[in-house]
Amino acid sequence: MTTKTAAARRSPLANLKPLLIDVGLPIGSYYLLKDALGLGTVAALAWSSVGPALRTGWSVVKKRELNGPSSLILLVNVAGVLLSFLTGDPRLMLAKDSGVSSVIGIGVLVSVALGRPMMTSAVKPWLVKGDAGREAAWERLLGGSPEFRRAERRFSLVWGAVLLGECVVRVVGAYTVPVDTMVWLGSVIMVVSMVLGFLVSGATGAVPMAHLLIAEAGGTECAAECAAECAAEQDAPAAPAVLATRAAVPAVSAGPVVAAVAR
Q1: Quick one: pLDDT band at residue 218, thresholds 50, 70, 90?
Q2: Which of 51, 101, 187, 244 is the most buried (most CB within 10 A)?
Q3: For residues 183 and 133, which has the higher predicted lDDT (pLDDT)?
């Protein structure tokens, strides 16, 4: 196995690694602390926020930029801690379940407004697929294709709108629909929102990005192959031409000999 092949096989995991650290690890640690170790909701949220807080602080101090996924998870956990203190009214309990969705939705929309769409880190690994050519094509398109950047923003914009819309619908339902109905209807609203988000963001964002990415990567590969073929043709010895010239010389010089024999 060559080093290039090994690197290509490691690439998908390398692309997913930031997302796993920033999102997967905090969520997994929350459920581990709460369900497996028996910590309360507030304690589990607080401890699972340590990683995102450190990652966010490190990004700000070291790179002078905000780590989007870590910052978002940190905000979600803080919102969860604050919402955990809301008790009493059953309708309020139903409404607060949508609080996390609203925080995520607002965070995603703000990231789009700031020109750093947060959902890009989620879609990029599935489009690049660990391919070095696509990775390079992604960077070129990101720097030089307005159409690609618009599709990138649309992907995050759709998810931000869907999550915020889910929050609004669930809050309205919590105070207008009977409590017993809203208990199961809330889950239905969440599932429908997720399906809608996948379909619309895919059609308006991910699919156009994939088409541009494949075309860019494919065009670059064709150009490289053509350049290699041209270089090979230029560097190849002119054997056919030499042989043709040498074949023509005896034929010309043999003319007088044939004429003499004929005489």
Answers
A1: confident
A2: 101
A3: 133
Per-residue buried b or exposed e for 49-67, using 16+ beta carbons within 10 Å of the residue's own CB: bebbbebbeebeeeeeeeb
Contact criterion met (CB below 8 Å) for 95 and 181: no
- CA 179 from centroid of its chain's CA atoms: 39
pLDDT at 199 over 90: yes
Residues 74-94 have pLDDT tens digits of 676 677 667 666 666 777 777
HSE (side-chain half, CA atoms, 13 Å) at 32: 8
Torsion sign across C-alpha atoms 207, 142, 116, 135:
positive
88 — alpha (psi -120 to 50), left (phi > 0) or beta? left
Give the per-residue pLDDT at 207.
Answer: 95
Give the span between the Cα atoms of 159 and 166, in whole angstroms: 10
CA distance 27 to 125: 20
- Give DSSP secondary structure letters for 144-199: H-HHHHHHHHHHHHHHHHHHHHHHHHHHHHHHHS-HHHHHHHHHHHHHHHHHHHHH
- Please give the backbone phi and psi of residue 247, each rounded to the nearest 5 degrees, phi first: -70, -30
Give me the pLDDT at residue 32, please.
81
176: which 2 tokens?
């207008």
